[in-house]
Write a structure and sequence with these properties.
Elements lengths: L1 H17 L46
Length: 64
């Protein structure tokens, strides 16, 4: 039974070490422009950082 506990402890420790919360590459994910009148131009920049080792691919961007 001792070997069984060692195996369970190994997988529990491995799972805890692997489970890391995902970090967002954005400082902010939404922007509220307030009231915008017809013909008025609104400009906003989102700061984007890649905290991961692998390249990130932006697959879509859409206004809401």
């Amino acid at each position: 039974m001792r070997g069984g506990w060692s195996l369970i402890l190994f997988f529990a420790a491995f799972g805890a070490a692997k489970a890391q919360p995902a970090t967002s590459p954005f400082d902010e994910t939404t922007f509220f422009a307030g009231e915008v009148r017809k013909g008025e131009r609104v400009v906003h920049s989102f700061v984007f950082r890649n905290p991961f080792e692998a390249p990130l691919e932006i697959r879509s961007v859409a206004p809401t």
